[in-house]
Design a protein that fits this description.
193 residues, alpha/beta, Rossmann fold, 5-stranded parallel β-sheet, globular, Flavodoxin domain-containing protein, Protoporphyrinogen_IX_DH, Flavodoxin_CS
């Protein structure tokens, strides 16, 4: 069993929801998992108690959360000495024509922080129209017009996350960590029990 930290930054909650799903998948493989919002880190906080780290961030106006970028930059040395993964949440990842743009955000993050995670995942985000004020709702409708099908009610919340892709990413990260650390897990029940 290994201990995983899933540290994330979230704007409207979708990255937190994805982090929790990753935590559940990794936990089901027998690992200990802590999912923590970058704003809620205990003080003092150290990476030394974890065997592996997954960092998640969302894109807003073309940028990741400053706090996530700062955390990675400040902890780059520790992160480079352990198995790591990064996941990004953006509307661009949900749009076939904009996936290259989403990949560019990841490249920028890697360049800015100098961190090279072992695994990278990109997932579509969500539109939380019920939480937006009038101006933000108009702006988000314009930004996401390619994603909003006419039959969808554009005033309701819409989720673009591919949950099967999230589960596959989490399983891949867990398997990678298990292989790198030589950890054997048994995800099947013992028939003799």
């Amino acid at each position: 069993m290994s201990s995983f930290l899933i540290l994330y930054g979230t704007g409207e909650g979708q990255t937190a929801k994805i982090a929790e799903r990753i935590a559940t998948t990794v936990s089901e493989r027998g690992h200990e998992v802590s999912a923590i919002d970058v704003h809620d880190r205990p003080d003092p906080f150290t990476l030394e108690e974890y065997d592996a780290v997954v960092v998640g961030a969302s894109i807003h106006v073309g940028k990741h959360q400053d706090e996530v970028r700062d955390f990675v930059t400040e902890n780059r040395g520790a992160l480079s000495g352990m198995p790591t993964a990064f996941f990004q949440v953006s509307l661009s990842s949900a749009n076939e024509e904009k996936r290259e743009e989403a990949a560019g955000y990841v490249e920028s993050f890697v360049t800015e922080t100098g961190w090279h995670p072992d695994r990278i995942g990109q997932f579509g985000g969500a539109l939380r129209f019920s939480e937006y004020g009038f101006l933000k709702r108009l702006m988000m409708k314009q930004i996401a017009k390619d994603l909003l099908a006419e039959e969808r009610k554009s005033t309701g919340d819409i989720e673009f996350t591919d949950w099967d892709a999230v589960d596959a990413f989490a399983a891949d990260v867990a398997a990678f960590v298990e292989g790198r650390l030589g950890v054997v897990t048994d995800t099947t029940e013992d028939p003799a029990a």
